[in-house]
Amino acid sequence: MKNMAGVVVVGSQWGDEGKGKITDYLSQKADIVVRYSGGNNAGHTIVYDGKKFALRLIPSGIFTGGDVVMGNGMVINPKAFLEEVKYLNDAGINTDRIHISDRAHIILPYHIAIDAMEESLRGDAAIGTTGRGIGPAYVDKYDRCGIRMGDFINEERFNKKVHSVVAFKKKLYPDLDVDADALFEEYKEYAKIMKPLVCDTGAYLDDAFRDNKKVLFEGAQGTMLDIDYGTYPYVTSSNPGANGVCSGASIGPLYLDEVVGIVKAYTTRVGAGAFPTEIEGEMADHIREKGHEYGTVTKRPRRVGWFDSVVVNQSRRMASLTGISLMLLDVLTGLPTLKLCTAYMLDGEEIHSLPACIEDLERCEPVFEEMPGWDEDITGVTSFEELPVNCQNYIRRIEELVHCPITMFSVGPDRKQTIVLKEVF
After folding, report:
1. Where does a domain end: 143, 163, 194?
2. 19 is annotated as contributing to ligand binding
3. pTM of the model
């Protein structure tokens, strides 16, 4: 049993750190790649065989020869899933290796409609959701009126459940415009296509580990969007960090050997919420354009800030990070001075962890230290030693601040532009 290898890849800021690329890179050595949380609100951009792909639901490991698993912790929009399958098939990518948990909940049109209605009702207090029904689907899961994949692929049960839930929702939301008959007729056809892919993925993974397979767990979003530990209420509706792996993939903690935190060399976030190290003006525009900082799913411009060690330390603690993959170092090339946030000041006190209440976090002021930048082109380096001295110093200082070794770094979007300092498989 101890010959097994379970590696987790988690975004360790507010998402969009480059998880897709590292998952794709590590999946070359994995037998199975598993996604365990979220829905099609998350997106991964991957450069494969010279082409750029944007995935929303299917794990990034689909581009390698192994199997991929969509775990029970996910909420899956069947229509969006099949659109993504077609998108990949049209590009020549085989999707027959997908295994979907029979316990994963599905997203239906009424979830999307309710998402839009509730965001509108919130007015100035809107959370800034992607509008894809993720939150309402998770609400149904915990309200015990959700529809799981195992029910969805059983036509009789699906018909009964969808009519019952729609009738209940219309009592709660009188303006909800959803026809249960039409919904059932459309979605039962999707269920027929998906049925061969559905199984007990927890048992499947247990067998894989017993056979000493190498399994890679792929997070979605970032740990600062965690429903419990993130910048609540401006968070997602699940546990995207390593703390969500066991419940979201139906496996136990002893299966996990390494947890790799994906971290940008700076910081970004999408949507509303506190962002202590945020940069405004020309500098933000420069980094945003050079780093192509626009949402994979929403295309919204990402907010940009300096590296925040308080955020990454929070992620290290909650995810038990064993190593960090530092992404987009090349974006900082040419900046004369770089800033690193080492702590926050709150009411005259220096603190090194995020306050639980968003009102307190909004009052935090970052404590910065400055380091000299570098002008040399680093996109072609193949080792740490080839980096400019100032870039090496920047990496080493981040390691000191977050108390975790940097085991990989990236100097460009291609697989070949990932430099590994320590193997995890």
Report:
1. 194
2. yes
3. 0.90
Q: Are residues 270 and 339 in the same domain?
A: yes
Question: Is 216 labelled a binding residue?
Answer: no
Q: Which residues are catalytic?
A: 16, 44, 141
* Same domain for 114 and 93: no
Query: How many structural domains does the chain have?
Result: 3
192 is in an annotated binding site: no
In angstroms, rounded to a whole number, what is the distance separating the alpha carbons of residues 299 and 54?
A: 12
Chosen domain end from 225, 241, 259: 259
Based on the fold, state whether residues 273 and 394 are members of the same structural domain: yes
Question: In CATH, what number is assigned to the domain containing residue 127?
Answer: 1.10.300.10
Q: Which residue ranges of the chain lie beneath pLDDT 70?
A: 1-4, 296-298
Torsion 93-327-301-117 (CA) sign:
positive
Nearest of 6, 3, 425, 396 to residue 215 by alpha carbon: 6
Closest alpha carbon to 393 in 373, 366, 375? 373
pLDDT for res 296: 63
| 188 marked among binding-site residues | no
Residues 249 and 279 in one domain: no
Looking at the fold, whether 393 and 266 belong to one and the same domain comes out as: yes
CB atoms within 10 A of CB 233: 11
Does the residue 155 lie in any domain? yes
Are 37 and 175 in the same domain?
A: no
